[in-house]
Amino acid sequence: MNSDTSRSILFTIVIAVVALVAVTVGGSVVKSRGEHTGEPVGITVTGHSEIMAVPDTAYVSLGVATERKSSRQAVANNARIAQAITDAVKAQGVEAKDIQTRGYALQPTYR
């Protein structure tokens, strides 16, 4: 657990304890429509926390589509473009094991 997470958890616990002590020490509780009573009937704790960290995972989905006169030309063009994309992603520091092809389709176009 990192220090930001630990601080957030500690902050939430401290707020809960302070609220619990305030209610059990005899503080009055407000009922609906501004009515005050001396009996504690419950506890409400509200908090907010933010944790900022450098992301270590990103999922990106890309597609390549070309139309050519022959399927051989379309396949070659798609392979060239897909390889250029893969090379650019690797140049940004992404390892080859983290890059994958999820689908491949070749369909004729009729006129």
Describe what this molecule looks like in 3D.
The structure is a single chain. The protein has 111 residues and is mostly helical. It folds into two domains: 3-37; 57-105, no CATH class. It is built from two helices and two strands; from the N terminus they run αββα. The chain has helices at 3-24, 71-91, and strands at residues 29-30, 36-37. The termini are far apart. The model has no long low-confidence stretch (mean pLDDT 79).
Total number of distinct structural domains: 2
Radius of gyration: 30 Å
Oligomeric composition of the shown chains: single chain
Ends distance: 61 Å
How would you classify the helix and strand content by structural class?
Answer: mainly alpha
From N to C, what is the helix and strand string? HEEH
Entry summary:
This protein is mainly α.
Keywords:
111 residues; mainly alpha; 39% helix
Write the layout of secondary structure elements.
Blueprint: H1 3-24, E1 29-30, E2 36-37, H2 71-91
Antiparallel strand pairs: 1-2
